[in-house]
Design a protein that fits this description.
Blueprint lengths: L2 H23 L8 E5 L5 H9 L4 E4 L2 H10 L5 E4 L8 H4 L5 E5 L2 H14 L3 E6 L13 H11 L5 E7 L12 H16 L5 E7 L6 H6 L4 E4 L1 H4 L7
Parallel strand pairs: 1-2, 1-8, 2-3, 3-4, 4-5, 5-6, 6-7
């Protein structure tokens, strides 16, 4: 095992251990939480090392990078589209990505519906909610969420599996507890409405800096990149 492989394996074990501890603190079953390794900007070798260490779920931010890695890696992994999705890129991932985390408008959902119908598949999606109200963030406002979900729920080839949010970047993870709690409460409220074609089984929230707090507040998916692979390699 080379140094890089060892590093990734160690990092994964550390993150999983912290998830287990967060579950213990909040009286949850660790089996309820799926760790998604965010592999954006990372080489295929890193993904293979992570898979070798037991990782099955991977998340990418860009459609082109996601499809390239899916085409390159033959082993069966669970691929998630977690970044902002442009309507003109929808055709490349519908029927390929297992879950699209970042649906932030009825228009985008309609595009996914049209593509899924064309391919005769059902697309699993999460609705991205801008819980913090930051102007720089994508996502539907909490106030518009219920009406948006009711509209998207009518699309037969789209299945709403839950909600996703990106909390603010902060030095203190506790600062984001309020946002994770709010997303969980929104999910509970929507679940109580019993809308056809809508499940609230997935809460995708928490990243490297705050995933433990997110787990304590009910996250079922946490998206960890830097905590597994180290700092990102952005090429200018």
């Amino acid at each position: 095992m080379n140094d890089r492989e060892q590093e990734i394996k160690y990092n994964i074990e550390q993150v999983q251990s912290r998830i287990r501890e967060a579950c213990l603190r909040s009286h949850r079953d660790p089996a309820e939480v799926t760790l998604i390794a965010v592999s954006k900007t990372k080489p295929v070798e890193d993904i293979l090392y992570a898979a070798q260490a037991g990782m099955e779920y991977f998340g990418e931010n860009k459609v082109q990078e996601l499809t390239m890695k899916m085409d390159t890696i033959s082993q069966p992994l669970h691929w998630n589209m977690i970044g902002h999705l442009q309507k003109n890129k929808v055709k490349y991932i519908v029927g390929r990505a297992e879950l699209i985390h970042s649906v932030d408008s009825v228009d985008l959902a309609k595009k996914i519906q049209d593509e899924a119908a064309k391919k005769n598949v059902r697309a699993n999606i999460l609705i991205e909610v801008n819980v913090s109200g930051e102007e720089s963030k994508f996502g539907i406002s909490p106030e518009a969420l219920l009406d948006t979900i009711k509209e998207i729920a009518l699309f037969p080839n789209v299945c709403i599996r839950g909600l996703m949010t990106i909390a603010p970047f902060t030095q203190n993870p506790e600062d984001n507890r309020q946002y994770f709690k709010k997303l969980r409460n929104l999910a509970v409220d929507i679940k109580s409405k019993n809308i056809d074609n809508v499940s609230m089984s997935v809460l995708s929230m928490g990243m490297t800096g705050d995933y433990e707090v997110a787990v304590e507040e009910g996250a079922t998916m946490v998206r960890v990149g830097t905590g597994i692979f180290g700092e990102r390699n952005y090429v200018s």
